[in-house]
Structures are given as C-alpha cells and as structure tokens.
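BUG: 3D viewer hangs when loading the predicted structure for this chain

Environment: internal workstation, default settings.
Expected: structure renders.
Actual: progress bar stalls at 90%.

Input used:
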Amino acid sequence: MNYRHAYHAGNFADVVKHIILSRVILYMQRKDAAFRLLDTHAGIGWYDLTSDEAQKTGEWHNGIKRLLDAEGDAPENIKQLVEPFMAVVKSHLSNGELANYPGSPVLARKLFRKQDRLTALELHDEDFVRLKACFDGDYQARITHLDGWLGLKSHLPPKERRGITLVDPPFEVFHEFFNHLKGLKEGYERFATGTFMLWYPVKNRKACDEFRSELKALKIPAILDTSLEIRKQGRDKTFDGTGLVIVNPPYTLEAELKQLMPWLVKTLEEQPGKGSYRIEWLAKAP
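Structure tokens produced before the viewer hung:
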C-alpha cells in the first residue's frame, strides 16, 4: 500500500483519526498541567486540496466534504463531539470553500493551550522542509528530521511526563504492523503512563486480526481498538477501512466512540447499509 499522504488528505481515514485525536487532546486538557504530543510520522502540516495530487484522487470529497455537508443535520451530541475538529477545518475555508486540510500536527497545535507542546518527526526530506516551514518561529513546536520509529526510543518519556504519542506510518511496506508492535513495546517501556495512538489501514483482514492478537500478547493493561469500514470486503484486498489502537485511552473515550462511530459510518459509508464499525477492548485493566 502506497500512502503518500498528499493524495489522500481529508479522506475518510483522516477524519475518523483526527476526530478521535481531538477528543484525546481535549481530555488531556482537563488538567492544567502541560502535556506533549509526539507525532512520529508528521507529514507536511497543511494539505492543499486544490493540488494536482489531491485533485487526482478526490478522496476528500468522500471524507471531510461529507462531514461538512452532514454536520448541520447531526444530533446535538454529535455536533459537540466533532466541533473542536471541525472548527479547525472551517478556520481555513476560502470564500466558503474547502481549500486546505490540517494534518495531525497542525490540528493538535490549533487545539493547544499555551502550555502544551508538540514534537513532530518527519523523515522524508522534502516533507520535512515543508513541515518545518509550517511551524517556523513557533516556540511550542519542535520539528525534527528523523525516522519516527527511532523517535519512540529517543523522545520518550517527555519532560512534561504527560503526553500522547501518535504513530501514523504510511504503510508502504507490509511489516508496518510489526513496526507498530515493536515501537509500542519500546515506547511503553519508556512511558507506561502515556497515551499511544496507532493508526492502521483495514485492507488485509487477516493481517489486522493477527495484529490485534499480537497486541493482546503484549500484556499491556489497557488497549482499546476501534475501526470503521466504508464498504464490505470484496475479492480484492482494497483499502476498505481505517483502524486506531489507543493504549491508555481516556476513560471517556469509549462512551464517545459509541456515539460517534454509528454517525460516522452513516456519513462516510460508500453505499447505505454497507459500512460497519467496531469498538473492542483488547485489554482492559480491572
């Protein structure tokens, strides 16, 4: 799977992931103490939806565009849950039209208080230059040219001792699931009280099931897994869904997901009644 993000920015996977990220950030802000977000595969920051790459696939039309169109008719509880994320998106409308989409480091930074901090890692040379320019002069953001998998060793624990680690690799190679497991094990050993968010594509169902089984075997006390599929699996292993594993999730998150996911499926599914979601504890502390 080649997931160079400029082609896919604002798609169904992005909006699900970013809404959940916004909920986790807002939970961290219930305490006055600062926290740090470590974004290991940060990308370029902002994505131009008028670019050749975004126009070539048009995936954002079935992602963020659908959410913008559906938000007005959403139930009040859903509006409240998606509002922090949608406010960031709407802040960069151009003449009322969607022209740019925020990647995870920009979304987080827009939601931060003055005491919160961002560490964003990006290995790709050109993308790093663009990401660094995006945060030029921002004292709350540290942008580093580094392999994100190495960052789980070198950047944890954060000095704030409170934090979220978002691991969102491109899945250009099959063994990214192994990298997730290895990276989580190393990161958790260094920062057992932190929240880890691991994104994965729902494409090869067997690989996803094996990944979940291996996560259970790590014996980490609290692991919540959620995924959303926009279509039923066909004969080919297509990119049918998006998954997110949350280690040490906020205690409020499960209840929020139970509200959000049915609405997101209805809004994002390819055909009515063909989408689905799951919310499952892979490990739950007593």
